[in-house]
Design a protein that fits this description.
By secondary structure, the protein is mainly beta. Helix content is about 0%, strand content about 45%. Strands 2, 4, 5, 8, 9 and 10 form a six-stranded mixed sheet that branches. A four-stranded antiparallel sheet has the order 1-3-7-6, with no helix packed on it. The N and C termini lie far apart (about 40 Å).
Length: about 130
């Protein structure tokens, strides 16, 4: 049974930084494309960033490019999201996700669509104050 657990959320001041972590258990993270999504109150779930199995392809939503960095450490079965220059518009619940069932190749571009990911973490709240 593959499980994902996020950590690292919290309350930060605008302009500050936060690092989110997602640990995979019950499986081998290097076998999965993974991603981060977020959902703010009253809004639909939004793609933030994704990373393929090799770590070499990392698409981002335009609003976070240059500020957020997605990375993975397959030896630790972990996924990370480094968030810099945070602003109040980044406030949301952040979820990590894994494509466990899919058959993506090692170097292929990961999906930006939530339906492609079949395993999800519980979410971690990120709140950015003005």
């Amino acid at each position: 049974q593959v499980q994902l657990v996020e950590s690292g959320g919290g309350l930060v001041q605008a302009g500050g930084s936060l690092r989110l972590s997602c640990t995979v258990s019950g499986g081998t993270a290097s076998n999965y494309a993974m991603g981060w999504f977020r959902q703010a109150p009253g809004k639909e779930r939004e793609f933030v960033a994704a990373i393929n199995r090799s770590g070499g392809r990392t698409p981002y939503v335009d609003s976070v490019k240059g500020r957020f960095t997605i990375s993975r450490d397959n030896a630790k079965n972990a996924l990370y999201l480094q968030m810099n220059s945070l602003n109040p518009e980044d406030t949301a619940v952040y979820y990590c996700a894994a494509d466990v069932v899919g058959r993506a190749w090692y170097y292929s571009t990961p999906s930006k669509s939530s339906w492609e990911y079949d395993h999800w973490g519980q979410g971690t709240q990120v709140t950015v104050s003005s």
